[in-house]
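Bit of a strange request maybe. I'm writing a small parser for structure token strings and I need a real example to test against, not something I typed by hand. Could someone generate the tokens for this chain?
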Amino acid sequence: MLVRICSAVILSLLLGGAAQAQAQIQVQFQPPQPTFRSLLKVPDPRGEFVRLCAPHMVGRWAHPESVCGCLHDYAAATVEDADLREALLRGISETGVPTIETAWVPPSKQSEIGPTFTKIAKPALQCMFDPATNQ
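Reply from user aminoacidic:
Good idea to test on real output. This should exercise your parser:
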């Protein structure tokens, strides 16, 4: 009988110790904390563009987000030069129509503004008047 009691006590101590050690391991484990980079997440450029553009399209188009998304994905995508493309996207997001101010483009590229509008004319018109075919 004494052996059974001692065995039960030893067994409970062993099991209790293992459970306590497991509990300590669980307490010591903490999920990874967010890094500085993840705290400063940069918004999706396309989403930000559509968010800024859409209010200018309300009242003009039945689906302003679709028109803005199309302008971003098709019209602006035809412009290879990064400075001209950024200026075009800025103009659309600020006014709701394809616009490039000369002050937004380096002087060496200002002569390319006209040809840029010629290049984006067809995709921009398709986005504005028939966006479903581009998507």
